[in-house]
Write a structure and sequence with these properties.
Layout lengths: L2 E6 L5 E4 L9 H8 L5 E6 L7 H4 L12 E2 L8
Length: about 80
């Protein structure tokens, strides 16, 4: 079962991250690294995504469902 990371874009759409399995990182580590700082995310099965690519760009995600974590300032230095 393949997994993806989803988070809500500022305009209300959904962003989908398809992690590279050979990275040596867990899904959670990839999410914290790749999801923008402060954005909540959810790890879901690819089968839960809209299957029609024409409607996928219209897909929205409810922020209340994004309960797996929050993106961090990964690698940001001050």
């Amino acid at each position: 079962m393949e997994k993806v990371i989803v988070y809500r874009l500022p305009d209300g759409g959904a962003a989908i991250i398809s992690p590279f399995e050979g990275s040596g990182l867990t899904l959670e580590e990839i999410a914290v690294k790749d999801v923008p700082s402060g954005f909540p995310y959810k790890i879901i099965n690819t089968s839960d995504l809209p299957q029609d690519s024409a409607t996928r760009s219209l897909w929205d995600v409810d922020e209340a469902d994004l309960t797996d974590g929050v993106g961090a300032d990964y690698g940001v230095t001050e």
